[in-house]
Every structure is written in structure tokens, then in C-alpha cells.
Amino acid sequence: MHRLGKRLVRPLQQLFQSKHSLTRSSPISPLAFRKELVAFNSVAVENDIDNRQLHVKWDDGTTSRFPHIYLRDNCQCPNCFHPSAKQRNISDTSVLEAYDVNTKASQAKFYPDRQEIEIKWDKDNHVSVFDTNWLKMRRFPTDRDQVGHKIIYSDRRLWGGDLNGDIPTTDFNEILHDDLELYKWLKNLARVGLTLVKNVPEEVGQVERLADRIAYLRVTNYGRTFTVKSKHDPSNLAYTDKGLALHTDLPFFDLVPGIQFLHCIKQAAGGGGENQFVDGFNVAEVLRKENPYYFDLLTQHAFVYFDIGKDYLDFINVSCRLNGRNEVIRFVHNNHTRSSILDVPEDKVIDIYRAFHAIIQIMYDPSNLVTNRMESGEMIVFDNWRVLHGRSAFQLTAGGNRHLEGCYIDWDETASRMRAIEEKLKMKNFTGVI
Ligand code: OGA
Ligand code: NM2
Ligand code: ZN
Ligand code: ZN
């Protein structure tokens, strides 16, 4: 059987819905934006009709080429691109024009003072006007010194035990009231994946207050927020006084919640109840290096997780999805809720167990682990697509129950909020070019 190169085998979801694609509802007008932040000017424009492309020479000495078809496809006039919806406007087969490689710009006029290029299309006399900086931010990778469309999670810092005592820490009130502090905190969440928030009032409602600073939180069958306490008839092992192995929360959803908040309203008076964390992306890279075959086994098979019970609702959640890619974008593992359905070929079962053994060994290697015992009034917020968390057992004492409140929010909403702050505060390295 023909075996495709690993790089080519990508789930459709990744092809059609790149994690890095930007939301269409971005409020940014590229024209308004460039005047504030970008200072490239074009010095010359040449229309290369034979090759159906435009050459734009920039004042930094570089030249970018834009195929005519690309320019026609991306005409920004209000007929082609709806000005407030910011979406392509064509709904009938005339859309085929935009995909016709014979599309030809018969004229291109450069207005250096306005920094605009006016293009006349051969076929229908349509006119398009492009702002040169709009174009510069969309130049193709061959001549791109830096990416205009930057990705919010692009500068990750992988970690191991070196993060002990060094978890990025923020003050609750500052991120509640100051957008720049909020941004810095979210940036740490994107970069490191694990953050500590201090000076949180020791009462319920605080995770939601903080989540509200980002976007709508993610409601699940466990409620808008969830209460982690040792309960009678617990619907989940988390609701006992027992230890929890390193895990991803809610791995049985197709869209695993991206970010988790855990607010310690009251820590266990009798000791125990500290948390362990491990950077799943780091673990994955260690495994890839040490044993590429095990890495492939774990990334190329779908593992099934389940959750069954009653909390606010009766629920039976069962996942069935790919849990990995060649580029690791999610690390999902939860031994408590791993299904007894092991959906792999029979001759792979033993090797799959070997691979699990290898990766769990890396996860629990003391050099990769971070331990933190929250005090009452602290909150831990972490990337649930990346960082696995655990808990050691605790003692129930007469002094009152250990009490955490948690909630989830998704990465899409969070990344969007970050871009909106970048725009509002006119930050360099804007990641919201659409
Ligand atoms: C959870 C969990 C950690 C803790 O509720 O999913 O991991 O410290 N809790 O109780
Ligand atoms: N809780 C805390 O995925 C899991 O089962 C972890 C989730 C119950 C919402 C616990
Ligand atoms: Zn147009
Ligand atoms: Zn958990």
C-alpha cells in the first residue's frame, strides 16, 4: 500500500479549518490599521502583464510579486468585499472569475503620495484599489522577511521541572482592571501554558469574573462553573478526596476545552491537595526524539475517552477523534476516563501499551514535573490542550471541606480577545491581519 509521507497526512479538519486561521469578525480595518503601525512604503510598481503579476518594490529594497489572480480574488471594493461584514460578497457563479488564472490586469497605476495602486481588470473593466501596506502585510513567503499574519501561540516556551517556583504569576485585580496586564497574563498562558493568579477573594464567582474579562466561558454538563469538593455520590473522581493522576480535563469532547481555571477558595486544612503539572508538548517532543515509532503510534491512532453520570444533566460523553498531529497541537491524556474500547489493530495492541508506558514514564519523570500547592485565595489557570494536571489526595478534617471552583474557556475566544487588545492598545506585532 502506498504510504503517504507523514507531513502530508493531515486530518481534514486541519486542512479546512486551520487552527491558525483568524476569525472573520475581526473589527480591524486594514487601512486604518496600517497608518498607525506599519511604515513600509512602496517606491515602484511594475505590471508584468505577460506573467500576469504585479511587482511591488518596497523602500526596504525588497520586491514582492502578486499574481493578478490573487489581486482579483482579494479586491477590497465594497462590491467584492462587504465593508462591515468583512467577508467576500459574491454568492453566485461569478465567483469563478476569482479562480480564473487567465484573469488579467490590463492597467496598474501607482499613486506614490496616497500609497495606493489602482488596477483595471481586462474582462469586466472592474477597478480595484490596493493600499500598498495592505499588500506588504500579505506578501508571499518567498520574499517575506517577517510574517504579517502572526500566530498568537507561535512563541511557545517548553518547560520541565525548571518551572518549579517560577510559574508566571499575576495579581487578580490588575488583570481584572488593566487591559495590558490582562494581555500579558494571556500571553504567558499562550507561551508557557501555566499561570498563577494571586489575591483572589476567597469566595465563589471569581473564575467567572476573570473568564468574563476574556469572553463567554464554556458551559459543560458540569455547569457554567464547577465545584471541586469531596461530595456524596460523586459524579467524578475529582469530587472525592482521592488523588488524581496527571490528566487532561474533559478529553471525551471533540473540542476539548482549551483553558481551565481552578480557584482555591479553601485549601485542605489537614494537608495534601497539591497539584502536579507537566508540559505535554515537551513530553511529546521527548518521546518523538527517544522513540519516533511510539510517537507515531500515539499520534496516529484515535483513543477513546468517556464520561458517564449525572451532574446537572444525565450525560454519556464518548470521544472519537484523532488526538495528535505531526505538529503537536493538543496533548490529551486521562487515564481515569480512558475507554476500554481500544480502537487499534490487534497486532498493535502490545506496542500501544509500550508506547503508553514510555510516555507516562516521561510525564512522571521528576525532571519534567512541576508541583504547586495553591493557598486559599489563589487560582491556577492553564492550557488544557497542553498541560496535564494532577492532584494528590487530601485529608478531610473537621475544619471544613477543601473547596475549589473551576471553569473552562476556549482558545479561539481567548486568541480573539488578545488580538482585540493588540488592536486597541496599538501594539506592534499585531496578529489579527485578515
Ligand atoms: C479537576 C482537578 C484538581 C484539584 O477537578 O479536574 O483536576 O486540585 N482538580 O482538585
Ligand atoms: N470536572 C472537574 O475530565 C475529567 O473527568 C476531569 C472534570 C469534574 C469538571 C474532571
Ligand atoms: Zn471589487
Ligand atoms: Zn482536572
TrEMBL record:
<keyword id="KW-0560">Oxidoreductase</keyword>
<dbReference type="InterPro" id="IPR042098">
    <property type="entry name" value="TauD-like_sf"/>
</dbReference>
<keyword id="KW-0408">Iron</keyword>
<feature type="domain" description="Gamma-butyrobetaine hydroxylase-like N-terminal">
    <location>
        <begin position="48"/>
        <end position="135"/>
    </location>
</feature>
<dbReference type="GO" id="GO:0045329">
    <property type="term" value="P:carnitine biosynthetic process"/>
</dbReference>
<feature type="domain" description="TauD/TfdA-like">
    <location>
        <begin position="170"/>
        <end position="408"/>
    </location>
</feature>
<comment type="pathway">
    <text>Amine and polyamine biosynthesis; carnitine biosynthesis.</text>
</comment>
<comment type="similarity">
    <text>Belongs to the gamma-BBH/TMLD family.</text>
</comment>
<dbReference type="Pfam" id="PF02668">
    <property type="entry name" value="TauD"/>
</dbReference>
<dbReference type="GO" id="GO:0016706">
    <property type="term" value="F:2-oxoglutarate-dependent dioxygenase activity"/>
</dbReference>
<dbReference type="InterPro" id="IPR038492">
    <property type="entry name" value="GBBH-like_N_sf"/>
</dbReference>
<dbReference type="GO" id="GO:0005739">
    <property type="term" value="C:mitochondrion"/>
</dbReference>
<keyword id="KW-0479">Metal-binding</keyword>
<keyword id="KW-0124">Carnitine biosynthesis</keyword>
<dbReference type="InterPro" id="IPR050411">
    <property type="entry name" value="AlphaKG_dependent_hydroxylases"/>
</dbReference>
<dbReference type="InterPro" id="IPR010376">
    <property type="entry name" value="GBBH-like_N"/>
</dbReference>
<dbReference type="InterPro" id="IPR003819">
    <property type="entry name" value="TauD/TfdA-like"/>
</dbReference>
<dbReference type="GO" id="GO:0046872">
    <property type="term" value="F:metal ion binding"/>
</dbReference>
<protein>
    <recommendedName>
        <fullName>Gamma-butyrobetaine dioxygenase</fullName>
    </recommendedName>
</protein>
<dbReference type="Pfam" id="PF06155">
    <property type="entry name" value="GBBH-like_N"/>
</dbReference>
<keyword id="KW-0223">Dioxygenase</keyword>
